[in-house]
Sequence to fold (368 residues):
Amino acid sequence: MKPNSMRIVISGGGTGGHIFPAIAIADTIRNRYPDADILFVGAKGRMEMDRVPKAGYRIEGLWISGFQRRFSLSNFVFPFKVMNSLLKARKILKKFNPDVVVGVGGYASGPTLRAAVQLQIPVLIQEQNSFPGVTNRLLGKKAACICVAYDQMEKWFPAEKTVLTGNPLRVSAVAIEGKRDAAFDFFGCNPSIPTIVIVGGSQGALGINKALSAQLEKLAQANVQMLWQTGTNYLETAKAEIEKLGCSDKIKAVAFIDRMDFAYAMANLVVSRAGAMAISELAVVAKPVIFVPLPTAAEDHQTKNALRLVEAQAARLVTNSDAPNELVPEMLRLIENELEKAEMAQNIAVFARRDAAEQIVNQLEKLV
Fold:
């Protein structure tokens, strides 16, 4: 088979942390092989069903969601969703007849990869985290290749199948060189004031939002300005609090940051959840960061992700439960310490891998 005629299924999603790397892989395949046929498989009702078509790719949806770790009536429907999704995934794969199936994590990835294994279609897993989820750990034994973002992953996956590639990134998000002046103009911020950028994930972060609200007056009085990604649900609350304090010139609240390159370009400090993709982007742009890991992430993998960097003096960590009291004081302490920020920026840059998507497509070529 000629690689240019390859047929690839990419499955997963649910959050930007799964969708953006999936699109980065697809874009790299398309750039290298313009005639390659790429089909996404996602979960109905999740953000990939909107984001993937906007990126120019076809997508099929499965009726699947996560299993709730606390009591929920939706758990009674979960087994039916799994069976329905497995059957539909098999149908999709039989019809599309892919050469390789790529799983990037998220609800749809599990049924699609299981169906691929059953149909003896080669599977490539792109594991973004330092602590893989149960589904990937189980499927790793049957996968043809596992592309990982951290070293020492052989404890979870067969060593002979595991390749350290890094996480594929949105090139548009990390290309920040020469954009600082344009960034301040774009967001209406003052280039002479230290700037803190809050990125709580593609849907915002309630724990971070509430921590900032609890001590917003301190931020308003300090010699800092802040670009605050609140998520859609918290935006009006944040705007009302900012207006009440009369600090809209210094604190800008937005539901979602579309121009992450501009946000990173002007940031002196970043506050973020500790999702794998956020970490990968921050390493490439080499920005000092305070992580506030999402405590409800599967198997607390965000804390494990963050600790790998904290141990290397490449980041600071404030727990979600401590954030209301400790986050803002730590932000204000760190923004004043140029030496500490410079050391963190230098250390986090060691984790950067800029060619991850290219490396993953190299592995796909071998499977095809």
In short: The chain is about 45% helix and 15% strand. The chain has two domains: 3-167+355-367, 172-349. Residues 310 and 316 are 6 Å apart (CA to CA).
